[in-house]
Write a structure and sequence with these properties.
Number of helices: 8
Order of helices and strands: HHEEHEEEHHHHHEEEEEEE
Length: about 375
């Protein structure tokens, strides 16, 4: 495990990278929203093949060569990455009508069509169109993506969670997901990073249009940040915890062949943090003290906190709001505090001193 942190910026290591053409990103030299606009200018002029062309694209780009490797369609809403799939589709199983889960697959717009009024080129953009079970696609509807708690919704003709564990219900509205309590849809962990990077692509590719679209809970109405709190924190955590896969790399290359543009956040995952790092929420309550967090070089499950003030309490909190460790009046040497027995993950570290608190995000790999 390794901890890498600054006050607002969190870095993580991604081991898989796609291969864009030489020079494709030469003009992407900035940071923050300047970088986002530079990427927009690189990917904006894609060759829209149209919505109907996706029917022929799926059998090229979305065959399961990664799990069963059985020439079936890879559906993120039915795939079981650790065992037998509940059902499988072949390319001939696409349809528009269904009665129950497992009947057929259709086209899922990761960003709902209602957001952009089914206009082109968004409607046929292969980067955010996925083949998914028709019934589960209908179950997800236009709900935003989020973290579902125990309050699941009921819908006739489908189990919740679905047969591969995807689910819909009220957002947990705590921890990393605090700030939204409406209904959300949550895919399984295996594909959360895919969903996140699709969103980062989409709001970059269409930054010139997005502020004029219909109201959508995941979007804030701007053309720069676009992704609203708390959804930015949720998508960022998914992006970090589910790094770029070979499936995404291959599909990015296929989309490039199909329509002539790439998802830059599959090619260069670090750009997510470079663009949105300053916008990731950090709670600070008028604190009058400073501190730094750094890893122990000889013990990867231990971190140190060095503070100029004596700390009253330290809390390590999961993205779902669960307090994993709570240390009151912690021991210290020269105002240096130690937290041990850490597991990999995305956490909040809450530091309290003299009724003041600061919360920082930490990623432990």
């Amino acid at each position: 495990m390794k901890l890498t942190i600054t006050f607002l910026f969190i870095f993580s290591t991604f081991v898989a990278f796609a291969q864009p053409p030489a020079g494709y990103y030469n003009s992407a030299t900035g940071t923050g929203f300047t970088l986002k606009t530079q990427l927009y200018n690189i990917i904006k002029d894609h060759n829209d093949q149209g919505y109907n062309a996706i029917d022929d694209f799926f059998p090229i780009a979305d065959i399961d060569n990664y799990y069963e490797d059985d020439n079936t369609i890879l559906d993120i809403y039915s795939e079981n990455p650790n065992g037998t799939d509940p059902y499988n589709f072949f390319a001939s199983d696409e349809c528009g009508n269904y009665n129950g889960e497992g009947d057929c697959f259709n086209k899922e717009h990761v960003i709902p069509q209602s957001v952009f009024s089914s206009n082109t080129p968004m409607r046929g953009d292969a980067h955010h169109l996925l083949p998914t079970d028709g019934r589960v696609n209908g179950f997800r509807g236009s709900y935003p993506y989020g973290i579902v708690g125990s309050n699941l919704i009921s819908q006739s003709g489908i189990s919740n969670p679905t047969q591969n564990g995807s689910k819909a219900g009220n957002n947990i509205n705590t921890g990393i997901a605090a700030g939204f309590s409406g209904i959300v849809f949550e895919p399984i962990d295996e594909f959360k990073g895919d969903i996140a990077r699709i969103h980062f692509y989409f709001v970059t590719r269409y930054e010139n249009l997005v502020s004029n679209w219909s109201s959508y809970a995941m979007f804030d109405g701007s053309s720069n940040k676009v992704i609203a709190d708390p959804f930015l924190d949720i998508l960022y955590s998914w992006h970090v915890n589910d790094p770029v896969s070979q499936k995404e790399i291959d599909r990015n290359n296929d989309v490039f062949e199909h329509q002539g543009n790439r998802n830059p956040f599959v090619d260069n995952p670090q750009w997510v943090q470079a663009i949105w790092g300053n916008s990731l929420s950090v709670t600070q309550s008028n604190t009058q003290f400073n501190f730094i967090v750094y890893p122990n070089p000889s013990n990867s499950n231990r971190i140190h906190i060095q503070s100029e003030a004596i700390l009253d309490e330290i809390q390590l909190i999961t993205i779902n709001g669960q307090v994993m460790q709570q240390i009151q009046n912690p021991d210290h040497q020269n105002n240096t505090y130690t937290i041990e027995n850490l597991s990999s993950g995305f956490y909040f570290l809450k530091i309290i001193s003299d009724n003041q608190s600061v919360t920082k995000k930490v990623i432990i790999n």
